[in-house]
């Protein structure tokens, strides 16, 4: 059974528009988080939904198009527009959510997006400048599909997580990450490279593609 993918566009910078368009065309749902909808328009795409408090979108580029769902929240709220968009995507059947334009120059927003990855390990990923970033929790295993030599870094996000890495320059077998940078700057060597988490939570940053 094919898994459903949603792309959420945030109001940050799209570092490689051609590559973003390639990924977006694979999605089942396209969602603009407030002004992030503008990226969809600039790519020649039409969203299935625009979600947020609408404080930065300005004029609706698709005003009058009733096929687009608009979910409006008050400006004073407990969750960001991006988090609301993720929740909407999952409620509408998305198995995986990809975030684009997640780096808008404010470090607190970047950390907020990392917190969202940790809240949805294995389910939400950020694409930024050729790298995929995704959290993985205990019992999760993911295959890395990228070219040999691609950079991969794995960071502990809980106390002493235990992981296995296969098909890398530096392989690990149920190794505990005692140091914060133990998994920094590894590289993929085989097409069937994998990351498996046995205990705890990690944040994986992969150049190319992470499935």
Describe this structure as you would to a colleague.
By secondary structure, the chain is of the alpha/beta class. Helix content is about 20%, strand content about 35%. A hairpin with a 2-residue loop joins β6 and β7 (about 130-135). The chain is elongated.
- pLDDT average, as an integer? 92
Number of helices: 4
Q: Estimate percent helicity.
A: 10-25%
Order of helices and strands: EHEHEEHEHEEEEEEEEE
Task: List the strand order in the largest sheet.
Answer: 4-3-2-1-5-6-7-14-9-12
Give me the count of strands.
Answer: 14
Largest sheet: 10 strands, mixed
The secondary-structure class comes to alpha/beta
Which spans of ≥5 residues are poorly predicted at pLDDT below 50? none
Q: Please indicate the percent range of residues in DSSP E strands (runs of 2 or more).
A: 35-45%
Distance between the termini: 15 Å
What's the layout of helices and strands?
Blueprint: E1 5-9, H1 17-24, E2 29-33, H2 37-42, E3 49-52, E4 69-72, H3 81-91, E5 96-100, H4 107-119, E6 124-128, E7 131-137, E8 141-144, E9 151-156, E10 162-166, E11 172-176, E12 183-187, E13 193-199, E14 201-207
Parallel strand pairs: 1-2, 1-5, 2-3, 3-4, 5-6
Antiparallel strand pairs: 6-7, 7-14, 8-13, 9-12, 9-14, 10-11, 10-13
């Amino acid at each position: 059974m094919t898994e459903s993918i949603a792309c959420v566009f945030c109001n940050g910078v799209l570092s490689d528009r051609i590559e973003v368009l390639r990924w977006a065309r694979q999605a089942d749902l396209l969602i603009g988080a407030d002004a992030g909808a503008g990226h969809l328009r600039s790519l020649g795409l039409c969203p299935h939904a625009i979600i947020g408090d609408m404080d930065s979108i300005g004029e609706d580029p698709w005003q009058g198009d009733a096929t687009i769902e608009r979910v409006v929240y008050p400006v004073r709220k407990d969750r960001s527009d991006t988090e609301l968009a993720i929740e909407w995507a999952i409620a509408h059947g998305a198995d995986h959510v990809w975030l684009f334009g997640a780096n808008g120059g404010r470090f607190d927003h970047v950390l907020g997006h990392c917190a969202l990855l940790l809240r949805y390990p294995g389910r939400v990923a950020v694409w930024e400048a050729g790298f995929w970033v995704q959290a993985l929790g205990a019992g999760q295993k993911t295959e890395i599909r990228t070219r040999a030599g691609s950079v991969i870094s794995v960071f502990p996000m809980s106390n002493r997580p235990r992981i296995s890495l296969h098909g890398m320059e530096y392989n690990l077998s149920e190794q505990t990450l005692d140091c914060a940078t133990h998994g920094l700057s590894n590289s993929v060597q085989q097409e069937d490279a994998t990351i498996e988490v046995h205990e705890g939570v990690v944040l994986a940053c992969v150049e190319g593609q992470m499935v």
